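REQUEST ID: PR-0412
SUBMITTED BY: lab tech R.K.
PRIORITY: routine
TASK: structure prediction, single protein chain
INPUT:
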Amino acid sequence: MKRRFILKNGFLGRKMIMIAALLFSGYLLSADPVDPVDLCMRLADPVTHQVEIVMRPTTTILATDIISEIRYTILWQQPLLVITDGPQIAPFSLQPQGGPVPSGGVYYQTYISQPNVPVGYAINAGQEVVIATFTVTAPIWSMIFLTNDQYMLDHNIQYFYELGGIDRTGEIICESVQITPDLSVPLSDWSVYLAIFLMAGAVVVSLIRRPW
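STATUS: complete
OUTPUT:
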């Protein structure tokens, strides 16, 4: 009798596990998929050095979808580089979170928006939409990066996109822009000294590496 009771309990246990698995699989099938929104940074005008931040969803975003939060951070190394933000683009309305923050030899500038408003128009899958712009002034050759590094992860300023309270963060699909020197900007004494120092260093390195 005891043996039959154990077998019966074992059968019931297996049956309960199967039912739970079916319920869980049904929940997964009924849940809405989380479709990511990718982000890109590109040079829109090489003369004025205007840079665009572009979003590209992998599935259609409805006009009624609510923008909960958008956040990303750009970084650069040149201390003489200046970022001038363009006008806000509705409904995204991104704005800088304070000023540039130096850390580890680079400068970080975070942008954030929490509008909690509808998109207002449908955005098709794969369609690119400009959500922010800025111009760059740099007296020497420079690079700007839109990426996620350890500093950003540690300070919670990495790329994040939330739509209707659901995390839709995708990939950063183009993450660097090259800025050529703007010779129309007057160079200060310090920038002249820096340029001379960099050129002298390049000459020294080439002499060291030259086979005699």
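NOTES: The two ends are 96 Å apart (CA to CA).
REVIEWED BY: pending
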